Amino acid sequence: MKRLPPLPALHTFLVTAQHCNFTRAGQQLHITQGAVSRQIAALEQHLGYALFQREARGLSLTREGQDWLPRVQQVFALIEQGVHEVGGRRATLQLKAPTCVMRWLLPRLMEWQALRPDVPVELTTTVQHGVDFRREGFDA
After folding, report:
1. What pLDDT, in 10s, does the model give residues 32-70?
2. I want to staple 61 with a disulfide (CB 3.0 to 4.6 A). Which of 5, 65, 87, 104 is the partner?
3. Is 38 helix (H, G, I), strand (E, B) or coil?
4. Alpha helix (H) residue ranges in the chain
5. CA distance linking residue 20 with residue 26, whole number of Å
6. Spatial separation of the C-alpha atoms in residues 13 and 131, rounded to whole Å
7. How many domains does the chain have?
8. Tell me, what CATH number does 18's domain have?
9. Range of the structural domain that residue 32 is part of
10. Close Cβ partners of 49 (under 8 Å, ≥ 6 residues apart)
11. Mind listing the pLDDT tens digit for each residue in 21-41?
């Protein structure tokens, strides 16, 4: 099985395909036109076929580039969706602590919460002294 192409090269392909211009793609990616050109050339060499036709007034996608573009767009859309789903799934810090440590824990937890008000905390108390992290949804 052939190695997968590097993710930065795929991103460069996606941006370059949107602009059909190495210079504008470089501006959006904050790299030089030459760096964009080299990344695309390396990607084409890795794949074994051309993605762009170099023309006097810019670029156009080859048939392979046209076929490949929606697939790369789909991959990046899935990555973006995953980032939002996983990142938004659990923004709350969930703690479980035995009741015997509350006198020690609460002042420290309140101090930490003052420093990090952006992280909501849920505290569950128990008389047990253990947490099974594989079965229970606690962070600490």
Report:
1. 999 999 999 999 999 999 999 998 888 999 999 999 999
2. 65
3. helix
4. 7-19, 22-29, 33-47, 63-89, 102-115
5. 11
6. 47
7. 2
8. 1.10.10.10
9. 7-88
10. 62, 64
11. 999 999 999 999 999 999 999
> Do 75 and 102 belong together in one domain?
no
Tell me the residue type at 60: S
Percentage of residues in the chain having pLDDT higher than 70: 94
CA angle 53, 55, 61 (to 5 degrees): 30
CA 97 – CA 100 distance, rounded (Å)? 8
Asked if residue 130 has pLDDT above 80, the reply is no
CA distance 70 to 50: 16
Cα-Cα-Cα-Cα torsion 116, 119, 125, 129, nearest 10 degrees, comes to: -80
pLDDT in tens, 84-107: 777 665 577 788 888 888 888 888
Sign of CA dihedral 42, 47, 48, 52: negative
Q: Decide: 58 and 33 in contact? Cβ < 8 Å.
A: no
Q: Is residue 2 part of a domain?
A: no
Residues listed for the chain = 140
